[in-house]
From TrEMBL:
Record's keyword annotation contains Zinc: no
Record GO terms (molecular function): water channel activity
Subcellular location: Membrane
Residue intervals passing through the bilayer: 15-33, 45-64, 99-119
Keywords: Membrane, Transmembrane, Transmembrane helix, Transport
Protein name per Swiss-Prot or TrEMBL: Aquaporin
One GO CC annotation: plasma membrane
Keyword presence, Plastid: no
Taxonomic superkingdom: Eukaryota
PANTHER family, alphabetized: AQUAPORIN TRANSPORTER, MIP17260P
Membrane topology designation: Multi-pass membrane protein
């Protein structure tokens, strides 16, 4: 795409990207929930744990879809690119498969919150 936009790489379909976004957003958010509580044994190293989760997500997902794990991070560059490059043509092309970068991370984050809640019952 350009300007740091996310798009699904050739050879990967929307479902593979969706599953990847779900899994790695779930992982990141679960690490955030579990390591950043003041009472958590890992709270002193929460930054390292969170950074490693973000690193792992990027290592795996950059070749697949550019690694979103944050819907607004995908929306912003696509919106700016649309403003810069769109003519009277089809503006939808700037947001092709964008649902993947919203559904995957949002469902992954909600699932992580649910699992965290189960852990803390």
């Amino acid at each position: 795409g350009g300007l740091g936009t996310n798009s699904i790489a050739e050879g990967y379909g929307p479902m593979r990207a969706l599953v990847g976004e779900f899994i790695f957003t779930f992982l990141l958010m679960l690490v955030v929930f579990e390591s950043s509580e003041v009472e958590a044994p890992a709270s002193a190293v929460a930054v390292i744990c969170i950074g490693l989760a973000v690193f792992l997500a990027h290592v795996v997902l950059i070749p697949v879809d550019g690694c979103s794990i944050n819907p607004t991070r995908s929306f912003g560059p696509s919106f700016v690119l649309m403003l810069r490059d769109s003519k009277e043509g089809n503006k939808a092309e700037f947001f092709a498969d964008h649902w993947v970068f919203w559904v995957g991370p949002l469902v992954g984050a909600v699932a992580a919150a649910g699992v965290h809640k189960l852990f803390t019952l």
